[in-house]
Amino acid sequence: MRKNSRGGEEMEELILTRPTLALEQAAADYRQEHLAAGETVLHGSALMDALPYGQWVQRTLENAHPDTAHGDWVPADTFFVIRKRDGRMVGMVDIRRTLGTPFLAELGGHIGYGVRPSERRKGYAAATLGLALEHARGLGLSRVMLSCYADNEGSRRTILHWGGKKERERVYTDGKTVEIYWIQL
Description:
Layout lengths: L1 E2 L5 E2 L3 E4 L6 H13 L16 H11 L12 E8 L5 E8 L5 H7 L2 E5 L8 H15 L4 E7 L3 H9 L3 E7 L5 E8 L1
Antiparallel strand pairs: 1-2, 3-4, 4-5, 5-6, 7-9, 8-9
């Protein structure tokens, strides 16, 4: 957040940028910050936490096209969320065009996103989700499913901010309860 000319706070401008090999160090810094905070899962990263970076970039490029999307996933667009003012990577988002796997249909949803620990509570999650919803609308989706852990109040508030309607709760693969929401676009 920055102060505007009237003394109030204004949201930093964010842009969605597709991952490239040139952004490897920024991605490594992002990942390391999560690990240092005790977080081993990078939400919205489309498995950046599980693959070598070069392979991951190639996979995200392949998954961006229906003809080359991996059989265990769906066509999806993965982006780094970059703060325009200084080029800092503040988050990630994965926008899936369908719920074409049992996992996505039951638990994962159309959009997964995350914000680096040092940039939380600054409005970036809401801004990221807003950009993701705009992208999803551009893909022709009329509504999207999202999920969040039941104990993640920040994520719940972000989803509700964008009009999320809670549909159900389920137990995630780690045994924790997740809430499933739908947002009309």
